[in-house]
Structures are given as C-alpha cells and as structure tokens.
Design a protein that fits this description.
Elements: E1 2-5, E2 13-14, H1 15-21, E3 30-32, H2 40-44, H3 51-63, H4 69-81, E4 91-95, E5 98-102, H5 112-130, E6 134-139, H6 143-152, E7 158-165, H7 171-178, E8 185-190, H8 194-206, E9 216-217, H9 224-240, E10 248-253, H10 258-268, E11 273-280, H11 285-292, H12 316-323, H13 328-339, H14 347-356, E12 358-361, H15 364-378, H16 384-396, E13 404-408, H17 416-421, E14 444-446, H18 450-458
Helix pairs in contact: 3-4, 3-9, 4-5, 5-6, 5-9, 6-7, 9-10, 15-16
The structure holds pyridoxal-5'-phosphate.
EC number: 4.2.3.1
Enzyme class: lyase
InterPro entries: Ser/Thr_deHydtase_PyrdxlP-BS, Thr_synth_N, Thr_synth_N_sf, Thr_synthase-like, Threonine_Synthase, TrpB-like_PALP_sf
C-alpha cells in the first residue's frame, strides 16, 4: 500500500515511512492511494469474529508489504490485551435502536487507546527493524497525551514529549500523564491553549533543525495509523446490530475530525452506513462548515468537554482532499487561502461534504441536561463528550428504523466537573488507577513560546 499527501507535493511513501513521518513534508496529511473495499458477503462472513480477528482483516491491507501478517496479529493481540472488557468495544442499549458504543475500556479510559496502544507497538516494531530511534512530539487537549504515553512508554526506541495546555486539562487527565515516571517520558504544560500546543508541534515538524539530526514522529491524529485503527470499531459495532444486512448510522463527538473520518472511510470500504452525524461543542467550526459553509476560525471557548476544545480541525483536510477530486494542488491552494482568511468552500466541495455528514452543536448547559436526563431514565452515566454525541444523534436521526450508534469516547470518571454540574455523582476511579491522586507527578511548565519548548526538547535528546 502506498500513501500520498493531500497537498500533492510530497513523495508517496510506504506504510512504515508514513507511520514514522506523521505530517507530509509539503505540510499535507497522508492518505492511502487507494482504499481496500470489502463485499457485503465478506463483511457478513465476519460476524462471529473476535474484535482482534476483525481488526486484522480490516487493517492488514493498509500495512501489507511493511508488516508481516504474523507480527501484525501479535501486535493487535498485545494492543488490546489491556482492555477491561472481553469484547473490547462493548455496546449498551439506551432506547429502541439507540446504542452507545463504549470506547473507554482501555488503560486510559478514552477511545484514543484503540489507536495509540497499537501505534506504539507498530512504531517500536518498525524502529527495531530499521535500528532507528524516534522523538515523539505531541499536543494534547487531554486524552491523547495519556494514551500516547501509555502506548510508547515501554519502547527503547522512542522518547516522548507531550505538550498540554497549562491548567486546561482535567486533573484526572493531567495525572494520567504526569504520574508516568519513565526516563523516556516528558510532560510539558504550556501557558497557552490547545491550538497553541498543536501549532508548536506543526511548526516543529516544518522546521526540524532544533533536533540536531534526530527524527521526529507524531502521535496526533495527523498520523495515518491512528485513523486506520479507528475504522475497526465502526465495523464491529455495525455487525453486532445486524449490518451488513441492514444499514446503521453513527453519531460521533469530534473536534479534530479524526474519529468521524474513520467512519467515513468505513463507509467507503463497504460498510452500509446511512448517516454520519458530526457532534460538536461550542467550538463548532465543523458544524458551521457542514451546515452553512463557514470555515472561519473563531476564538476558543473553554467548555465542559475539553477534548473537543479546538478552533481548527486538522483532519478535515483529508475529507477536503476527496471533496476536491483528490487534487493536491487544489488543497494546497485552499489551505493557503484558508490561512489568509478566505473561509468558504466551492459549491461542489460543500455539496460533497453535506452529502456525507449531518451535524449539530451542543452547549454546556444542554450537555449537563442530557447527562442528567439519561441518568434518571436509564441509570447510565454519560461523559460530557458522549452526551453531546447522543443529543446530536437524537436531533439528527432521520429514520428511526435504522440503528443509531453513538460513540462513547471517554469514561465519565475523567470529567467529574461536568458530571457534578449535571447533578450526578462522579463515579469512583477504576481499580487500576485507584491511587491516581496519591501518585507522584512530574512535569515542567513553559511559556507559550516555541523556542523555549524546542530548547527543552533539544536539551533532553
Ligand atoms: C479526542 C477526543 C474526542 C475528539 O476526537 P477527534 O479525533 O477530534 O474526533 C472526543 N472525545 C474524547 C473524550 C476525546 O478524547
């Protein structure tokens, strides 16, 4: 499988190279040159498979040529061995045809474990084979950081530096990162917001001279391998409610457009998906572009669903690439115009986007209402991101005979503030993190200044 850049100027690369490169050298994002597709018969034949077997069938075409089948199977088994439910991604029914897909059964209690547990192992495998080392630099709005650290901490070939916005992640989120005391793990609290952190990571990829020859790798969802791993649970959940014999719909709480983009790919690969609902909080650039063709950057709102507090959605570029007939030059031009403040799509591109996605925005007070209402009716406690997803699902659902699956992206214990504001009681920490608040923390607070952050990294190479 070859991968090409959305901006058309970087060379096509193999899976192994894309895995280590992250962002393409022309500033674009890598996407597969062609997508594997599966027939309805083939998908139907997978209904009895374990999550791990299904994951192998869906992902192997993407890595073939770079990772041998046996090694890949072992990595998949390892990656999901630390999940606390035997079906890995269990489903809970909350109403007729209404389902919650629990993606928070991994070690850090958010859906990012699905991709990052695998990513760490894939990187370690490729680096071992090539006898190379890699410096990981990532930005997190809360959940990526801990999942990436958990996925990478055991590799001798990786050093990981994670930037988080100082005092803007929940205490559970911060402690899940900063209590991992390993020689190759560095947490940096930047006195800025998530977009500042993400901007520093992007700038560091664009000019890597500060690294003095070391190689830089990405764990953010610009890394293709993360998207790939997220395709699997669309198939597993759809199969469990009767696909491919019937259609299914999904609602996905999203900010960076990573998770829902994986759903779009599942559809293109043959899964009969009716609706894909984009659910946003007050930071609604995705809702605005889908509903009214407005891609303007607005100032950041701090919300009760901090993992979606972003102004710019990096992965949307991958969709725009398809919306422009996969013409890299057009995307290069569009991104230049976008940075200069021109913020709408052509009619054709906007129609393409609207033909695949519905969208809805949910504010903080409504998020709390939904948490409370669902808890009162079903005794099921939603985290604030999932509550946004469920409210969007219920609002945008067109055909109630088609199952609607809302992705539960985090466990509610990670977001006690929202749960308590909703008038519910925050659950107790699961066993493996019972002593989280007593553990020793280690992190550095740095100014919102690229050179200060780069100096910090250079000194620790
Ligand atoms: C990261 C995250 C999201 C958003 O994921 P995208 O990649 O932006 O789609 C939603 N909810 C939670 C809990 C997250 O950690």
């Amino acid at each position: 499988m070859k991968y090409i850049s959305t901006r058309g100027k970087a060379p096509a690369l193999s899976f192994g190279d894309v895995l280590l490169a992250g962002l393409a050298s022309d500033g674009g994002l890598y996407v597969p040159e062609t997508l594997p597709t599966f027939s309805q018969e083939e998908i139907a034949s997978w209904s009895g498979l374990s999550y791990q077997e299904l994951a192998f069938n869906i992902m192997y075409p993407f890595v073939e040529g770079d990772i041998p089948a046996a090694a890949f199977k072992e990595m998949i088994n390892d990656a999901y061995a630390g999940f606390n439910h035997s079906s890995i991604a269990p489903m809970v029914q909350t109403d007729t045809n209404e389902w919650i897909l629990e993606l928070f059964r991994g070690p850090t209690l958010a859906f990012k474990d699905f991709a990052l547990q695998l990513l760490g192992r894939l990187m370690d495998y490729v680096l071992t084979k090539r006898q190379e080392k890699l410096v990981i630099l990532g930005a997190t709005s809360g959940d990526t950081g801990s999942a990436a650290i958990e996925g990478c901490r055991h590799s001798d070939h990786l050093k990981i530096f994670i930037l988080h916005p100082y005092q803007r992640v929940s205490e559970v989120q911060r402690r899940q990162m900063t209590t991992v005391i390993d020689d190759n793990v560095f947490n940096i609290a930047v006195k800025g917001n998530f977009d500042d952190c993400q901007g520093m990571v992007k700038n560091s990829f664009a000019d890597q001279s500060f690294l003095q020859g070391a190689k830089l790798g990405a764990v953010n969802s610009i890394n293709w391998a993360r998207i790939m791993a997220q395709i699997v649970y669309y198939f597993s959940s759809a199969l469990s409610v009767g696909a491919p014999a019937r259609k299914v719909s999904f609602s996905v709480p999203t900010g960076n457009f990573g998770d829902i983009f994986a759903g779009y790919l599942a559809k293109k690969m043959g899964l009969p998906i009716d609706q894909l609902v984009v659910a946003t909080n007050q930071n609604d650039i995705l809702h605005r572009v889908i509903s009214e063709n407005d891609m303007s950057r607005q100032s950041l709102n701090v919300t009760l669903s901090p993992s979606m507090d972003i102004m710019v959605s990096s992965n949307f570029e991958r969709l725009l690439f398809d919306a422009h007939g996969r013409n890299g030059a057009e995307i290069d031009d569009l991104m230049t115009r976008f940075n200069a403040g021109d913020v709408s799509l052509s009619d054709d591109a906007w129609s393409f986007v609207k033909s695949h996605f519905d969208s809805y925005k949910v504010d903080d007070s409504r998020t709390c209402e939904v948490i409370k209402q669902v808890f009162d009716e079903t005794q099921y406690l939603l985290d604030p991101h999932t509550a946004i997803g469920l409210d969007a699902a219920r609002t945008c659902w067109k055909d109630k005979s088609i199952p609607m699956i809302t992705l539960a992206t985090a466990h509610p214990v990670k977001f006690p503030e929202a749960v308590e504001k909703a008038g519910c009681v925050s659950p107790v920490l699961p066993d493996h993190m019972k002593d989280l608040f007593e553990r020793e923390e280690s992190y550095d607070v740095l100014d919102n200044d690229l050179s200060a952050v780069q100096r910090f990294v250079t000194e620790r190479l």
